[in-house]
From TrEMBL:
This is Uncharacterized protein. Residues 16-260 form the MmgE/PrpD N-terminal domain. Residues 291-461 form the MmgE/PrpD C-terminal domain. It holds the Pfam family MmgE_PrpD_N. One of its GO terms (molecular function) is lyase activity. Signal peptide: none annotated. Belongs to the PrpD family.
Length: 484
């Protein structure tokens, strides 16, 4: 038999990744990685509690409820609703991504929890319904970590944050791989079926970053990735054949096609998918947010806050400000340095360096309250935005998160602050900080007994016999934090 092109690629990175996914056990994972994973899970669930009843999430949920008969998978925040696995993955992901509070990866930007957790909980419910199999907490935790490791590695094969510069929504591109890998591990698929799942997932990848300019669909694009990866793994579980060697294939392969037009040489880097696999842990590069806005705005906010701390008297009079210049690195500028126009939607506001800098100056914080409808159209904020200029500052070099804010006063005085990283990047939020964030975000919008039980179960997840108890608790009705 004449070998096919795919046969020649049998030793490529796709098969190496699939073999690792099949073989990895919790005992192979460093203690700090799997402990951190539990706190990251808690942060993802906190974001879902906050986001599940926001207006744009409600619109998506009610649309699905109107189209579907009842299913077997819970919708978080809606105690009387259950839908199909694919819709549950989509809606619960949309809840996590609903308010720019969730995690992101430093080098290959994606919001891992919004992709992985909804897919895994839906898969666990589907397994219980279809073959009476319960998924325990240890298996769930291991599957989460597999997803945390896979998504960024696939992203690094496309130069990570460079995808944002090019206008792709990077997490929606890298995300189907993360979801498919995590669910494949949860389902205990063999190597060949994992490869099928990744191949099916990758052919569904995509997402346009123009979604950030006011659309609701920005909130849902990671949900597409969660849903599509779940669908891919369930198909593969039942013997559906996917694209083989999807990361290695030159003609129509995932990296080859998304690498086209990258302007890089080489256009993509397949070796990154398996580089130091099992030695370097991408989970350690997942960060958690201090501010309720896109990660690329965090250094802007921290620069402004640093100036407020240094010059409280000078900056207490906002009318004394003549101009504000925000210098940004390339990816951050393309992602968050766009000109904003009045009126502004919540989505655009949370993506905007100018808006977040203005509300930090006005309110001294950038949290959910700053994005209420009545807050988005304040004259005091828009007067400051009118004095701002965001620009790509070449002198900041290759440090992705570095920024400089220079405030010029009416008397000609210049106040300037340059930071290499925001606090959310370095030192980053500690496990104790994540626990405090969980309690703060859920206060007043979720029943306290339910909140405390979720906290205990997540932080001791290895002892759970059936993770559906967490899914059930998350389906408890919550309130809209913007109305409290």
């Amino acid at each position: 038999m004449t070998p096919t092109k795919n046969d020649h690629a049998s030793a490529g990175v796709t098969k190496k990744l699939c073999q690792w996914i099949q073989d990895i056990n919790l005992a192979d994972i460093p203690e700090d990685v799997h402990v951190r994973a539990k706190y990251l899970i808690l942060d993802g669930l906190a974001c879902a509690v906050v986001g599940s009843r926001l207006p744009w999430t409600e619109t998506a949920a009610q649309t699905v409820f109107s189209m579907e008969l009842a299913g077997n998978c819970k919708v978080w925040g809606y105690d009387d609703k259950a839908v199909t696995p694919l819709s549950a993955a989509l809606l619960n992901s949309t809840a996590i991504q609903a308010f720019e509070l969730d995690d992101w990866h430093l080098s290959a930007p994606l919001h891992s929890n919004s992709i992985i957790l909804p897919a895994l909980f839906a898969a666990a419910s589907q397994q219980a319904t279809s073959n009476s199999t319960s998924i325990n907490g240890t298996r769930f935790l291991l599957s989460v970590i597999v997803g945390y490791e896979t998504g960024p590695r696939v992203g690094l094969g496309l130069y990570g944050a460079h995808m944002l510069t090019r206008g792709w929504h990077s997490g929606a591109v890298f995300g189907p791989s993360a979801s498919a890998a995590a669910v494949s591990k949860l389902l205990n698929l063999p190597t060949d079926a994992i490869e099928d799942a990744l191949g099916i997932a990758c052919t569904q990848a995509g997402g346009l970053m123009s979604a950030q300019f006011g659309s609701d669909v920005k909130r849902m694009q990671h949900g597409f990735a969660a849903r599509n990866g779940l669908f891919a793994a369930l198909l593969a579980q039942n013997g559906y054949r996917g694209i083989k060697n999807v990361y290695d294939e030159g003609y129509g392969g995932f990296l080859a096609m998304f690498g086209q037009g990258s302007g890089k040489e080489p256009a993509c880097v397949p070796a990154e998918v398996c580089k130091e696999l099992g030695e370097t842990w991408q989970s350690r590069l997942i960060r958690v947010k201090h501010h309720s806005s896109m990660a690329g705005t965090h250094c802007t906010i921290d620069c402004v806050q640093a100036l407020q701390d240094k010059y409280p008297d000078k900056l207490s009079d906002l009318d004394a400000i003549a101009g504000i210049r925000i210098g940004m690195t390339e990816a951050a500028f393309h992602h968050g340095g766009f000109d904003v126009k009045r009126p502004l939607t919540t989505t655009s506001a949370q993506m905007s360096a100018a808006y977040t800098a203005a509300v930090q100056l006005v309110d001294g914080q950038v949290l959910p309250n700053q994005f209420r409808d009545e807050q988005l159209d304040r004259d005091v904020v828009w007067n400051l935005i009118g004095k701002m200029k965001c620009f790509y500052a070449l002198d900041l070099g290759d440090e992705r998160y570095a920024q400089r804010v220079t405030i010029t006063l009416n008397d000609g005085t210049e106040l300037s602050e340059t930071l290499d990283n925001p606090r959310s990047v370095s030192p980053g939020l500690s496990n104790e900080g994540i626990l405090e964030k969980w309690r703060r975000l859920t206060q007043g919008i979720m029943d306290e007994k339910t909140r405390d039980r979720i906290e205990r179960l997540v932080l001791d997840i290895e002892t759970l016999e059936d993770v559906r108890i967490l899914d059930d608790l998350m389906s408890t009705c919550v309130s809209n934090p913007l109305l409290n």
